[in-house]
């Protein structure tokens, strides 16, 4: 499971106002770093695209939290990028199979 996505999603849904928020952001950053590390390890299998998209999502989330704390659309965009990167990492050959389908002519 991708805990960084869950933590990001909870933060963007309003759970950031709970009293334990002081430790929630560091925990989210730790899980996000672990997520990016595992994506980096799978670059040979899945390619660079899942890692780059998830990295951009992480940058969106962290820059929003640091510089634009009231902006929700960039948090949602960051969570969407991380989710997209995770899905691309789990299904790396789906698009390739659809594109490179060979047809036999009888």
From TrEMBL:
The keyword Transmembrane helix applies. Keywords: Membrane, Transmembrane, Transmembrane helix. It comes from the Bacteria. The chain crosses the membrane at residues 20-40, 47-67, 73-91. This is MerC mercury resistance protein.
